[in-house]
Amino acid sequence: STNEPLKVMISGAPASGKGTQCELIVQKFGLVHISTGDLLRAEVSSGTEIGNKAKEFMNSGRLVPDEIVTAMVTVRLSRQDAKEKGWLLDGYPRSFAQAQSLEELNIRPDIYIVLDVPDEILIDRCVGRRLDPVTGKIYHLKNFPPESEEIKARLVTRADDTEEKVKSRLEIYKQNAAAISSTYSSITNKIDGNRPKEIIFKDIDSLLSQLLKDKTEKSMKP
Ligand code: AP5
After folding, report:
1. Which fold has domain 7-117+176-205?
2. CA of 185 to the centre of ligand 1 (A)
3. ipTM of this complex
4. Distance CA 222, CA 106 (A)
5. What is the pLDDT, as a whole number, of residue 2?
6. Which pTM does this prediction carry?
């Protein structure tokens, strides 16, 4: 069809569940998931120039300089798959300057989703989080334990998931949140992220399905 694909941004504090919801969104809507955190972690583990620059910022819970991240994201967004299938931007923009960079390039999402979770819950989610380096899946020791001993044995902890670093990541998030959301206020949907993940996804699913329907109807008008 000639339908314009969906363009989605998902935002929220550290451990608000962005990555977890993105797994579900990708499964259903087939969007290209662009997570700046994942892209940066991949650069760090392959020891690239970007990775070496980003590492100290990430490990201390600070933001990586805008120019590094913006270059990475705009390259990824311009690839053919993102243009054809649509995109799901996770963890970007994270500063007012980053939001402005996208505006200047005329890159605008159809919807800006914000996952809302109380602070005290976020700390526990970070400290209990484990990642599977083989599948990329996100686990939590209590909330989503691994399915087998084999998986359990290979899980890794992120260097920035200590209580102290989570607190500073949260501070930085709060300092930037208002400036970013002002850019997207007309398309913002705040969602209660402190519920079971399937229930949260139901809300997101109906928002995205409605958007798709609107786009299809619009494209059928003469
Ligand atoms: P990034 O990887 O983006 O980290 P973050 O924003 O802190 O988000 P997280 O990945 O911690 O959490 P999430 O919301 O995805 O939650 P998840 O689904 O995993 O960025 C890392 C670093 O990279 C930054 O600090 C910065 O240095 C750098 N960076 C990235 N983007 C940048 C940018 N644009 N500019 C500059 N620097 C940048 O869930 C968390 C846990 O909770 C999991 O264990 C999960 O199983 C569990 N969980 C999820 N949902 C639920 C639920 N509904 N109920 C119970 N438990 C749940």
Report:
1. Rossmann fold (3.40.50)
2. 22
3. 0.96
4. 25
5. 58
6. 0.94
